[in-house]
Amino acid sequence: MPRLPATIAALALAVLLGGCHSAKALLPPNLRPPSENTGDALKLARLQLMQASPCCSSFADFSYRSMLPWQPQKFVLGSGSMVANLNGTQSYFLAFRLPTDAKLPYDIAVKSELSGRWLHASYLFAPTIVLLDEGFQPIRSEDIGLCEHMGWSDESSGAFGSFKIDNKQARYLLVYSSAEQQAGKTYWEQSPASISTSSAASLQMNSAGSFSIPHGPDGTLWVGKMNKTYGNALANAICKKAAKGDGLLNTLRTALPLPWSGDNGKPNHHSSP
């Protein structure tokens, strides 16, 4: 009978030791250190793209049967997607015909999602948009600059951009990623106070800091006519690192001079009557 407590203690110790080895497996995925490496993932994605056989090399080769979505719609570009070769650069692409009855001008919204769950192990697809006339001749081409916004939902979180349609000759739209875009980066800044704890987007974040997210050849892209959610996100998005100032107190002192201060921020010394 006296040996029973010792047996129980031994069993408890074994359970605790076993728990130490399995603790890592019990951690939620967003709390585990990243196992993927951005460089390795990018190399693999680029190799996969280069090994694909392109279907199109001129603007007239594409099929424009799909109508531009009336609001942003999700597209996954990557393995299994068709590949184009434009100006010597291979890229996955999307092709749309534009509504002929739409009132000009109007904006097209784009949003790119991070490829991974951790910022320093992620990349994103940066789009280039080409506007074409009915003869498939380019009217305008633009590498879309992306700006980061972390909202309270997945819909309002990501890297946002826009493209204006203001030419009545415009009939078709091609979305791909140019060589310059694929070699570029997007500034990314986030704060724990600006993200939702319940959205999937928040699982991709670190606690704080700023990063330059490299552009990759594949990824998830949302494209369609601009709506209110995307417009608000873009209006409040961060496109580059803010210029370093002199501090909030000094800014307020300059903008709102105190009653006893002169115009130049220096105290007024009034002589006694």
UniProtKB/TrEMBL annotation:
<protein>
    <recommendedName>
        <fullName>Maltose operon periplasmic protein (MalM)</fullName>
    </recommendedName>
</protein>
<dbReference type="InterPro" id="IPR010794">
    <property type="entry name" value="MalM"/>
</dbReference>
<dbReference type="GO" id="GO:0008643">
    <property type="term" value="P:carbohydrate transport"/>
</dbReference>
<dbReference type="GO" id="GO:0042597">
    <property type="term" value="C:periplasmic space"/>
</dbReference>
<keyword id="KW-0732">Signal</keyword>
<dbReference type="Pfam" id="PF07148">
    <property type="entry name" value="MalM"/>
</dbReference>
<feature type="signal peptide">
    <location>
        <begin position="1"/>
        <end position="25"/>
    </location>
</feature>
